[in-house]
Amino acid sequence: MFQKTIGASLIAGAAFIVATSAAAHTSYMQPNVFDTPNASQVTIESSFTEDFSRPEVAIESEEWSVYRPDGRRDTFDRVTVLNQVTILESDLTEPGTYRFTTGERLGRTGLQGFIDGQWRPLDPDEPPAPGVRTRRSQTATVTDVYVTKGPPSTQVIGVSVGRLAIHPVTHPNSIYLDEAFQLRVTFDGAPVANHDLELTRDGGSYDEQTFHRTYRTDANGALTIRFEQPGAYLLMTRMSGNAPAGAPTDVRSYTTSLTFEVRR
User: What residue segments make up the domains of the chain, in order of their start?
Assistant: First the structure.
């Protein structure tokens, strides 16, 4: 396995955690190649979208990072932000597996109200109704992709990026149609049990029935996914949790996504 096993009792220390709606734009990173024997460079497209991988809103981040095969954090060689898409370039100097990430990027803030037993977004232009309990929230997003040059390596898979994390157990550049993809979901390192993840496939909107699947982790935060078609996939999960101490909001809405390829 490529990540540490964490006791389920630790989840209690995460305080408040609630699943949120998946009906929103999702960030992705799409490389021109996921696996290469000898390429010297990779180019990555990154954007927010509701239809993977059609770019809609370019991603801007102060935390763009390249994790090289030895686990060392580095920067991209070039980052070009356009209106609908960000284009990133990185060398592939060393053999092994690289991890490319937005890092945990903080986004918009908003006011939520506790209405009918649920926290719901409130209209920023209208005051809350009398007696409605409120709190402030901020988005926090992470999106990752792994690219391997030559034989795969595992050092970057265990690197922690963001509080809500998708940890591959199966190497993310060794997912095949006749084998399952195993992973775990954690929050602050603790397993997230019985939690939903959304899966879409690049080009899936052309299917007779649009490709969209929902999966749920088990009691240990683990999940196994099997595939019927090869292609590039986007896996996403969302949840809300208490903001870190000293943050300007009460809670954060966390979204983490992983782009990967399934091969024949």
Answer: 8-262
